[in-house]
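WARN retry 2 of 3 for item q-0093 after timeout on previous attempt; input resubmitted unchanged.
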Amino acid sequence: MPYIETKDLTKTFIVRSKKDGHILREKKAICALDHVSFSVEKGELCGYIGPNGAGKSTTVKLLCGILTAESGQATVGGLTPWKSRKEHARHIGVVFGQRSQLWWDVPVIDSYQLLRDIYRIPEHQYKKRLDELIGALSLEDFLHTPLRQLSLGMRMRAELGGSLLHSPELLFLDEPTIGLDAVSKLQLREFLLEENRQHGTTIMLTTHDMEDISALCQRVMVLGHGKLLFDGSLQSLLNRYDTLRTVHVRYQAGGRLPQLPPCALAKQEGDAYIITYPPKELPTDHMLTLLQSGGAIAEMTLHERNIDHMIADMYREMAL
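OK item q-0093 returned
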């Protein structure tokens, strides 16, 4: 039995908007999730992506038990989240990138001790897990500092530590790296991979940062207009939209760019050439052979297409 399973999960919100010339606000039903079905195995690390308003956060809130579905079913570890909230909360951890579960004006360690009491973690288990998280997340330097005095990167590490104190079987991450610098992002990704590997923690990641998805997830689900549009490997998704390569080349004295096929577009910047080509029409080994025929090469760099651009193309094609 899958650890997470949804069948025809549906959630609708009623919004009120004011029309010109009317006193009363008009009610309108917005379908945030429309009969969404998927399953996630225990220990899996999967990405859940889509543009703003696609229904990603709504899904997470339903699976956390914060919201109740109008129709359809959802089980996490055999429990229906919104029917067994108290028991369900003991088995999950949640990190929302723009919200805090820790107390703003008290030292991080005080928040952790409160969470220890809330989750009724035995003292020996709490100390062992705390030491493990302090080492893995480098928390020692700010453990006794109030949350409000921490940088965003420190705060996110503290939040992640708090969400994992009770050793949950499932971790929901909603935009966990939003606003973080490059170093903090790398540290967070490394920690999540290790947590998944060592403890078998099931992780469901929703984010707009495709570098997070690429670094962490082999499987990805794409949501749009409340519908599940794709569920499969990240590589198979990218292969469909990974249609271009770019090569930068600079020749030594006497070298010049040879005649290229019409499918390759070239422009010159200073003494370097930038060529964009479709590898399905012009294989990379043929392209490199062509470039070498132009003379001695001083410098050459091959770039894959930016993953964010590929996802943007996918959204456009799916009219998201």
